[in-house]
Amino acid sequence: VTAALRRFLAGLRLRLLLTILVVPVMAGCARPPRDAEDALDAAQAVYSLSCVALEVADAGAVAWLSGIEQPTQEDIARGEQVAGALALARDALIRARAALVAGRDGLDEVRGAVASLRIVAALLGAQAPPGLGTALDAAERAIGGAQ
Amino acid sequence: MSALGTALRILRDPVVRGIVVPLAEAVVAWVRGGERPVWLDGALREVPELHAPVALAEAKRRERG
Questions:
Q1: Whole-angstrom Cα distance, residue B17 to residue A143?
Q2: Per-residue model confidence (pLDDT) at position A13
Q3: In this model, does residue A118 exceed pLDDT 70?
Q4: Which end of chain A is more exposed for a tag (fewer CB within 10 A), N or C?
Q5: CA angle B45, A33, A99 (to 5 degrees)
Q6: A22 Cβ partners below 8 Å, 6+ apart?
Q7: How far is A23 from A50, CA to CA, in rounded Å?
Q8: In angstroms, rounded to a whole number, what is the distance separating the alpha carbons of residues A17 and A23?
């Protein structure tokens, strides 16, 4: 169990590290697009960042739920809200991907996914992985710059 | 080990450096007005699968005892 936990933490740290590396680049890219191709590029970058945020939020939810030895009904109710918001975010990202593949920017869908991930972060509270809020801030800035 | 120490250890890892450094250099060059990295034009990644529903189901089982 300890080795598995170490592997999980190492993987989580690596992903957070990659997110931290990506965030300054994303902030630099968050400028008004010159044309439709720029908007599509920005939407693809925000989509990729949102996928990382979804993975990190999901990993945080798993770590929290797995760490409760004797869950209460309140824990289960909160867990259902977290799982529901994660599923909403994932569905929105699936629609965003379909839009991007079709050549549309899909920014509305990515915005919906980020909003759902905000709910997940709020529900997880202190259990939310560090860096998740920063990644969501960067995604929102990039969406604003791509509009 | 602190989070900073862990981050530095990961950054010093030759495999991580071999993967991350070229990617970061290409993106920085692109942002500074250079050529767009070819790998950015590749297929969009798939939306990741969720593992929280499985963890929630296990938590429900423990709650029922």
A1: 30
A2: 72
A3: yes
A4: N
A5: 35
A6: A49, A52, A138
A7: 11
A8: 10
Amino acid at B9: R
Cα torsion B18, B13, A60, A139 to 10°: value is -40
- Matching residue, tokens 């939020």: A57
Chain A residues touching chain B at CB-CB below 8 Å: 10, 13-14, 17-18, 21, 25, 28-29, 41, 44, 47-48, 51, 54-55, 58-59, 61-62, 65-66, 68-73, 75-76, 79-80, 82-83, 86-87, 90, 93-94, 97, 100-101, 130
Q: Say how far apart CA A10 and CA A2 lie, in whole Å.
A: 12
CA distance A113 to A116: 5
Distance from chain centroid for Cα A108: 15
Please give the full DSSP string across A93-126, using - where no structure is assigned.
HHHHHHHHHTT---HHHHHHHHHHHHHHHHHHGG
Q: If you search the block for the tokens 């920005």, which residue do you land on? A: A42
CA of B46: how far to CAs of A18, A28, A90, in Å?
Answer: 18, 25, 11
Helix count and strand count (H, E) for chain A: 5, 0
Question: What is the pLDDT at residue B38?
Answer: 62
User: pTM for the full model?
Assistant: 0.69
Q: How far does the CA of residue A37 sit from the closest CA of chain B (Å)? A: 12
The label of the residue with tokens 């690596």 reads A14
Q: Which pLDDT band, with edges at 50, 70 and 90, does B8 fall under?
A: confident
